[in-house]
């Protein structure tokens, strides 16, 4: 079994795209032996303030328009949570049961937010997602694990979300080229060379 680590915030739209690209390639290659360990990079703690809904809404709109028309179908800025921490606590708790459970939970949380338009800070939503993956919410080391991930990410030089590590080498947002053009307009393109290099290392 090969494990690919990625430090990411659950509300980061770029991470959702990157994880779906990874999962799609894994399915195409028939390589279930390569798993993701999605670790917490809590941007609200990293930046000292919650993520701005306007920014997330802009990023989702441009991703959908420019590079990922098949994703973010159920997204609604109205359900963006004020904090990502409860969702990341839940994912960390799921990883206590094993990498398969943790990966399933991490992907399910992002799918619920970006494809189903669900509020992943709502305890009822989290309970539903946890139950589907067989993970417990109460009595878990989730909160402590999130802080541990954050500190470990700092030590390893994480620069943002998502930041992947393959055999010790780091890849920051390897599937996308993101810039702001004249007037501050967000420009997003698929970084095919970066994506191929990254996935080539994974598989």
Walk me through this protein's architecture.
There is one protein chain. By secondary structure, the protein is an alpha+beta fold. It has one domain: Glutaredoxin (3-Layer(aba) Sandwich). 49% of the residues lie in helices and 16% in strands. The chain has eight helices and six strands; from the N terminus they run βαβααααααββββα. The strands form two sheets. It has a four-stranded mixed beta sheet with strand order 2-1-3-4. A two-stranded antiparallel sheet has the order 5-6. β3 and β4 form a beta hairpin. α4 packs across α7. The longest helix is centred in the first third of the chain and has 17 residues. The chain is globular and about 45 Å long. The chain starts with a strand and ends with a helix. The mean pLDDT is 92.
CATH topology: Glutaredoxin
Average pLDDT score? 92
End-to-end gap: 11 Å
**CATH architecture tag:** 3-Layer(aba) Sandwich
From the alpha carbons, calculate the radius of gyration and give it in angstroms. 16 Å
The poorly predicted ranges are none
Sheet having the most strands: 4 strands, mixed
Helix content: 40-55%
Q: How many domains is the backbone divided into?
A: 1
| Contiguous helical run count | 8
Count of DSSP strands: 6
Anisotropy-based shape: globular
| Strand line-up of the largest beta sheet | 2-1-3-4
- So, the CATH homologous superfamily? Glutaredoxin
Order of helices and strands: EHEHHHHHHEEEEH
